[in-house]
Specification:
Oligomer: single chain
Strand order of the largest sheet: 2-1-5-6
Distance between the termini: 76 Å
Largest sheet: 4 strands, antiparallel
Helix content: 40-55%
Shape: elongated
Number of helices: 6
Length: about 160
């Protein structure tokens, strides 16, 4: 059975709050929805929300062997059993709660596979600033610099 991928982001306004923006993606869906736009420095379209590339501060991609709902149900069950067992054995402390109550918990439950898909930092400038990226391209700078130097030399010869 192929893995299911889940993407978690934190944004500039809340860098410590990580939230699930995509869940239950196959590898093709992951690449189309997140990997390709991220590597190109484009905004991320998540359901009815556009997440500006510039606002992304942290991201994690996790994988699970089952769909998110099945994984979360299993963790709810295991968590409940663990707390019930502890509460039966404890005479003074009672615990209520556990893991597996929202898709955001998949960040801890799943296997982190971020490095499998992202091997290098994203571009410094998003595609919307093409002129800035061109000015920082070594080929463009070298050729333009050569043309300018040749022009100065030609002008000096004529004067």
């Amino acid at each position: 059975m192929p893995p299911y991928f889940h993407v978690f982001l934190s944004i500039e306004s809340a860098p410590e709050d990580q939230r699930c923006v995509f869940s239950d993606l196959d590898e093709a869906g992951l690449k189309a929805s997140f990997i390709k736009p991220f590597k190109e420095g484009n905004n991320i379209l998540c359901a009815n929300e556009v997440i500006p590339f510039e606002n992304i501060r942290k991201f994690v991609i996790t994988a699970t062997d089952e769909r998110s709902e099945d994984v979360l149900n299993e963790y709810r069950k295991n968590s409940r059993e663990t707390f019930e067992k502890y509460n039966r054995q404890s005479r003074s402390v009672v615990f209520i709660g556990g893991l597996g109550f929202s898709k955001d918990d998949l960040a801890r439950i799943g296997t982190d596979v971020t490095s499998k898909f992202i091997h290098e930092p994203p571009p410094r400038f998003p595609n919307s600033h093409l002129h800035i990226r061109l000015l920082n391209n070594p080929w463009v700078v070298s050729i333009a610099g050569g043309v300018i130097v040749a022009g100065i030399v030609a002008w000096l010869k004529w004067n």
